[in-house]
Amino acid sequence: MEFGIFSVSDVTRDPVSGDTPSEAERIQGLARIAVHAEEVGLDVFAIGEHHNPPFFSSSPTTFLAYIAAQTKTLKLSTSTTLITTNDPVRIAEEYAMLQHLAGGRMDLMLGRGNTAPVYPWFGKDIRSALPLALENYNLLHRLWREDVVDFEGNFRTPLQGFTSTPRPLDDVPPFVWHGSIRTPEIAEQAAYYGDGFFANHLFAPSEHFLRLVRFYRERFEHYGHGSAQQAIVGLGGQAFIAKKSQDAVSQFRPYFDEAPVYGHGPRLEDFTAQTPLTVGSPQEVIDKTLGFREVFGDYQRQMFLIDHAGLPLKTVLEQLDLLGEEVVPVLRRELAKNRDPEVPESPSHASLVRAKYGEEAPRQPRPRANRGDNVTGGSPYLDTAPKAGAAFGLS
């Protein structure tokens, strides 16, 4: 079971101090948060992708490569990478490069994005978002698995004899999650390829997301990747923690009341009662999070949103201390109890390499000399992939 934090990279006014951090302050602050996540024993850090104010994370791979250089065990991910407005060729290349630089300590979550103005900025039409997402991922999936790709679709220029470089580390693609708030077609896509499915699990009751997770599990089994309980599921969540419950409520209330997403809407008490948001003591966060397994069954990854709504850096770092020292150790122990032994752990680069190659040495692609862009047929590499079993969870 993996635990981590994810950020949407918002630059939001602090309603208590009245200050709004600069982009520079927020970028450096989130870098400190990511490194501290490893220091307190968390497993994963993920950052979203946005191309409009008040968000700064327009280049997740750049940010994550910077974090990779400062950490040793932390797995780096996204929340999410836009499979619609990004060219799948660029996704294939940038995240393969990140995979190499991070030594395999990465995966990524793909999503459509729901900010309508972003689509025309990148020459896309939001009305085609779903077929665009499906086609782009089909191409990305092939680019990471085939040395030479011929492709013709509806949303980009054709490719003829194209090779994405660098090839994935050990010739094993990064593990992919597909994230969704409400779209069963994305859950279907995740199940078809045997990828992971991440339920956003914010702003709505758990029962809303349960429908998506159940559908994904059923389709995962339908496509022959394993039993429904072996499907790879991740959940989001929100928490604000203080030693005493009443202190957590009083400290977080002004941030909740002014938050861009739910500010000036429901009361804090009503929202925490109706959604996965937990505002309280470490034990209250533990109890509510343990309840997620009762709803969803055993799952592989639990992520928390803790750095939004204008919370100052000092407060977020304190939240991390409480999460890493008092909450996550208990969750690890309790969620390990009675866990179905057939439920796999979250895929890692090492596990994917073992699944593909067994005891064989992984393929290490080496370009043929002096062939460059003049390859007219066959692989542009010296070696070919050894015969091996299918990669974990992939058809």
TrEMBL record:
Residue ranges occupied by any Luciferase-like domain in the UniProt entry: 1-296
Gene3D superfamilies, per the entry: Luciferase-like domain
GO cellular component terms, A-Z: cytosol
UniProt keyword annotation of Amino-acid biosynthesis present: no
Segments for region (Disordered): 338-395
Domain of life: Bacteria
InterPro entries: Bact_Lucif_Oxidored, LLM_FMN-dep_put, Luciferase-like_dom, Luciferase-like_sf
Keywords recorded for this protein, A-Z: Monooxygenase, Oxidoreductase
Regions annotated as coiled coil: none
Record keyword Oxidoreductase present: yes
GO molecular function term, any single one: monooxygenase activity
NCBIfam families: LLM_CE1758_fam
Name this polypeptide is given: 5,10-methylene tetrahydromethanopterin reductase
Species this chain originates from: Leucobacter massiliensis
